[in-house]
């Protein structure tokens, strides 16, 4: 499987639209958050005359982008591991088979949780840029906040789906929900920044 970050945008979009199970929702959520971080970085770079800490915000946006982009591939890899566990024979030991599936689902919940964590942080950064950054880039900052919120929400849903399917009550679904709330609040602040 070719790394998604090495593909052209057209090839990645074709991969998403293909009949293959990956890349799926988690990979798309990661890319959405990475795009939002990129837009935030652009808005920060062009806010140097408006924000004293613009350079720090550029670095923060770049760190977030670099952290979340590889999660697109990691999500697909986690899903492939789940499929392998699900399709593996139980070899006369259904409890062991169920435990392998549960372990794979737990791993599959970990990646979208990381996407949601990064997404909430990107949404908050974008909201700050929408409020205090270059006013000519306000629209871009709002788009970044909205994309980050969408990626966060999508990832949180995947955490919920995977932990529910694996009957895993370890608090990750609640944590993901709280991250969605943070991202939604950031979007409200971004949109209301000109009111």
CATH-scheme architecture: Up-down Bundle
Question: How would a textbook summarize the main sheet?
Answer: none
| CATH level 4 superfamily | Formiminotetrahydrofolate cyclodeaminase monomer, up-and-down helical bundle
DSSP helix count? 7
Low-confidence stretches: none
Domains (count): 1
| Overall average residue pLDDT | 92
Provide the CATH topology. Four Helix Bundle (Hemerythrin (Met), subunit A)
Secondary-structure-based class equals mainly alpha
Which descriptor suits the 3D outline? elongated
What does the model show?
The chain has one domain: Formiminotetrahydrofolate cyclodeaminase monomer, up-and-down helical bundle (Four Helix Bundle (Hemerythrin (Met), subunit A), Up-down Bundle). Helix content is 77%, strand content 0%. Helix 5 packs antiparallel against helix 6. By secondary structure, the chain is mostly helical. The longest helix has 39 residues. It is built from 7 helices and no strands.
């Amino acid at each position: 499987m070719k790394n998604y970050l090495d593909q052209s945008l057209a090839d990645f979009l074709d991969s998403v639209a293909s009949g293959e199970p990956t890349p799926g929702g988690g990979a798309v959520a990661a890319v959405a958050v990475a795009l939002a971080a990129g837009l935030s970085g652009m808005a920060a770079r062009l806010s140097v005359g408006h924000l004293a800490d613009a350079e720090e915000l550029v670095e923060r946006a770049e760190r977030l982008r670099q952290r979340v982009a590889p999660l697109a591939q990691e999500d697909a890899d986690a899903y492939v591991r789940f499929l392998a566990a699900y399709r593996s024979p139980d070899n006369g030991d259904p409890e062991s088979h169920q435990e392998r599936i549960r372990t794979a689902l737990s791993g599959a919940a970990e990646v979208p949780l990381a996407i949601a964590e990064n997404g909430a942080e990107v949404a908050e950064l974008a909201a700050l840029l929408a409020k205090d950054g270059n006013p000519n880039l306000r629209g871009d900052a709002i788009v970044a906040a909205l994309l980050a919120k969408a990626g966060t929400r999508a990832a949180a849903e995947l955490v919920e789906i995977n932990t529910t399917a694996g009957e895993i009550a370890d608090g990750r679904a609640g944590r993901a929900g709280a991250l969605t709330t943070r991202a939604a609040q950031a979007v409200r602040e971004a949109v209301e920044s000109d009111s």
